[in-house]
Amino acid sequence: QLGLDMEELEEIEEDAGLGNGGLGRLAACFLDSMATLGLAAYGYGIRYEYGIFNQKIRDGWQVEEADDWLRHGNPWEKARPEYMLPVHFYGRVEHAATGAKWVDTQVVLALPYDTPVPGYMNNTVNTMRLWSARAPNDFNLRDFNVGDYIQAVLDRNLAENISRVLYPNDNFFEGKELRLKQEYFVVAATLQDIIRRFKASKFGSTDSVRTVFDSFPDQVAIQLNDTHPAMAIPELMRIFVDIEKLPWNKAWDITKRTFAYTNHTVLPEALERWPVDLVEKLLPRHLQIIYEINQRHLDHIASIFPNDVDRLRRMSLIEEGGIKRINMAHLCIVGSHAVNGVAKIHSEIVKTEVFKDFAVLEPEKFQNKTNGITPRRWLLLCNPGLAELIAEKIGEDYVRDLSQLTKLHEFVDDDIFIREVAKVKQENKVKFALYLEKEYKVKINPSSMFDVHVKRIHEYKRQLMNCLHIITMYNRIRRDPAKLFVPRTVIIGGKAAPGYHMAKMIIKLINAVAEVVNNDPIVGSKLKVIFLENYRVSLAEKVIPATDLSEQISTAGTEASGTGNMKFMLNGALTIGTMDGANVEMAEEAGEENLFIFGMRVEDVAELDRKGYNAHEFYDRLPELKQAIDQIQGGFFSPEEPDLFKDVVNMLFHHDRFKVFADYEAYVKCQEKVSELYLNSKAWTKMVIRNIAAAGKFSSDRTIKEYARDIWHVEPSDLKIPPPNEPRDAVEDKTLNGTAA
């Protein structure tokens, strides 16, 4: 009626880019599922003023720009100043007969902003509460600094910087003071909020003045999304022991039963290890509490394994040697009643390798919860054509119960359905091709295979291996231009952490290769390479439905789960991948013959490590690999600066932890099988249907039901709450008739 176009408005809205990659997006899917399952759940985090940087590609290099996502306001959030809470930093600890007191602290206020999280068609609306840092009004104006009023007001920025910007590292730990402040800030505000809510409920019954916390773990479950909120464990202990005056053992029992910890990575450089000196300066009481936790923990181990000093060293929360550090993963394991990985293979590695000593001690503590994605965003919203086609065949209920997709197996030989699935994919490709041509000024052949590799740029994800395959395809076309070649559009996208030199060089290399390939007349429309700028959720929603081939090619044992892999599967792409993360379970669900699985398994990688990985051996044995590397090294893709990529080549030969050369041959051969199948459109589409039919397990609804039953001990409810306009007595009548649980 206003003459506005809804799609145009949607395009204008900024992404809330408040996470780095899979871990942040997983939390968003989990919030959607928790609301849809009717769980009384809250998501807590930081309201960063600047989210993940906007990526610009200039002359083939990544350039970062600040993500000023709040510039035009955010209509979905509501500030809640009435729930503002103080958070303390620095200071010192006084010990008195009454117990420890943390004094002379600096105070920062945490101002909550609430965003509604609606469940799918069930009238449930949960809350995501994000904290923003505010300086108190007397900041720097009490005690010292009395004279310089102007400077004191300007210094308020120091406190408010806590929620200024998201650290842009994915799978990498940067031990900066501001980052530790952020971690404690979200934890301290959230725990106060949870305890306030508990005390206000009928469960927080007070005998005279003191609250009885015995029922706390029965009413509250806190899931630690990686170790980033690990300070919640000593913080809850501080509240119980110092403020609520509980005895240590009781406080510890309640704390352990409240927390559960999800591990998201096994890469050593990603594990948080905070220097003791930094924690002592910023959170002196918490350090004392961590020491006490550690002492009791080590006493317990020594009682079971007497005289095993090496075991004590391995399992300590404190790492000696060089600067003393706190191992936050160890703190999380000791302070939680459940620990889980995010795919079967990852949970196995967690149990038998990374945290083996802890699993020997308490095997029942370790679980698996394979990740999932919300089908509301990742099918209905981003691919309405496919969603509708599925609904025509099996009804609409699958949106809430994705396991019903197995019903599609009945239609795998239905010629009309096969044609319609192919048609939806083609329409999505044409639409995305138009978008690419508008944004990148390159002519895209919509009948070419869309080969897509989108995720954060990291050596372990092996975008370099994809790049070597592109160069190999290019060389094959040049060698024999008349030979049949299945046309491809290779799309690679993702952000590199600003301080990650190698990742930035990989982006430059991809763009340098694209420049050569896309402008070679011999190649023409057979092969196009595009680096997708500023990959983010809103762009994923465009590219994923248009993808034919999904690249999931991490070295076996490095990608904890992956979730992009699931999004592609649900949207009718086929997967080329290693037996890593959730790829293993995707192959298990669909049948390994319906994925393009290649390369070393975890055991092969271990065996190669044992005998020693020698990159030169592969280079000398594989002529096409040698040619590609020689071209990179010789400046074929950087004629103005022939040794531009010397760091990349040097890494590949001398310190490639992720063994790109070892999987190159199997990868290229597997890609030939992909091209061969793509020639047979009907056989390809049948395999697509088998994949979609097997994708049901990978709904985050299933994941959340498992967390709810195995870890949080709550029952999901598929009840539709009546809308607010329906009188409440009608609800009570229904309950009496036994129609409501």
Explain this structure to me?
The chain is of the alpha/beta class and 741 residues long. It has two domains: 6-368, Rossmann fold (3-Layer(aba) Sandwich), CATH 3.40.50.2000; 439-676, 3-Layer(aba) Sandwich (Rossmann fold), CATH 3.40.50.2000. Helix content is 45%, strand content 15%. The chain has 30 helices and 24 strands. The strands form seven sheets. The chain has a six-stranded parallel beta sheet with strand order 21-20-19-22-23-24, with helices on both faces. Strands 1, 4, 5, 8 and 9 form a five-stranded mixed beta sheet that branches.
Notable features of this structure?
Glyco_trans_35, Rossmann fold, glycosyltransferase, alpha/beta, five-stranded mixed β-sheet, 2 domains, six-stranded parallel β-sheet, 741 residues
Topology overview:
Layout: H1 6-12, H2 22-36, E1 42-46, E2 54-58, E3 61-65, E4 78-79, E5 85-89, E6 92-96, E7 99-103, E8 106-118, E9 125-134, H3 149-154, H4 156-160, H5 177-200, E10 206-207, E11 210-211, H6 216-219, E12 222-225, H7 232-243, H8 248-258, E13 259-262, E14 273-275, H9 276-282, H10 284-304, H11 309-315, E15 318-319, E16 325-327, H12 328-334, E17 339-341, H13 344-354, H14 356-361, E18 366-368, H15 375-381, H16 384-394, H17 415-440, E19 449-454, H18 463-479, E20 488-493, H19 501-518, E21 527-532, H20 537-543, E22 549-552, H21 564-570, E23 574-577, H22 583-590, E24 596-597, H23 602-611, H24 615-621, H25 623-634, H26 646-654, H27 660-679, H28 681-693, H29 700-712, H30 728-736
Parallel strand pairs: 1-9, 12-13, 13-17, 17-18, 19-20, 19-22, 20-21, 22-23, 23-24
Antiparallel strand pairs: 2-3, 4-8, 5-8, 6-7, 8-9, 10-11, 14-16, 15-16
Helix pairs in contact: 2-29, 7-8, 7-10, 9-10, 17-28, 18-19, 18-25, 18-27, 24-25
